[in-house]
Amino acid sequence: MSVPETVDRALLTASVVVIVVAGAGLLARIWRGPSMLDRAISLDVCAALIIAGLGAKSAFARDSFYFPIMLVLAFLGFTGSVGIARFIAVRDRPPRRGTNGDGPDRPEKDSR
């Protein structure tokens, strides 16, 4: 093996180690997440880690077979993130003022 190939293998091995360590931290966050939003974000990061792992495998094997799979996973991760954000936005929306008669939209009483 030449020096560039050795450096390439070392960097790919280091990237796989970083991905595995990040995956372990991610599983801990999914397990202990104090809120549902933390767990949802962790699942989104899980999709990104899977894509990174497939990219590392593809680079290690020097094969482009996994690129379409990575593209589909990226699309699904984005769609899931947008869906979760919309759900959280609707759930956490403050109530409209004036719907129960105590807001500024309440009709003024004539004090004559």
The largest sheet is: none
Q: Which structural class do you get from the secondary structure elements?
A: mainly alpha
What overall form do the CA principal axes indicate? elongated
Return the average pLDDT rounded to an integer. Answer: 84
Q: What is the number of E strands?
A: 0
Work out the helix count: 3
Q: Which residues form runs of ≥5 with pLDDT under 50?
A: none
Which bin fits the share of residues in helices?
A: over 70%
List SSEs in N-to-C order: HHH
Give the termini separation. 97 Å
Our Rg estimate from Cα atoms comes to 24 Å
Strand content: under 5%
Write the layout of secondary structure elements.
Layout: H1 3-32, H2 36-61, H3 67-91
Helix pairs in contact: 1-2, 2-3
Q: Explain this structure to me?
A:
This protein has 112 residues and is mainly alpha-helical. It is built from three helices and no strands. The longest helix has 30 residues, at 3-32. The protein is elongated, with a radius of gyration of 24 Å.
Give a summary of the structure in a few sentences.
The chain has helices at 3-32, 36-61, 67-91.
Relevant terms:
112 residues; single chain; mainly alpha
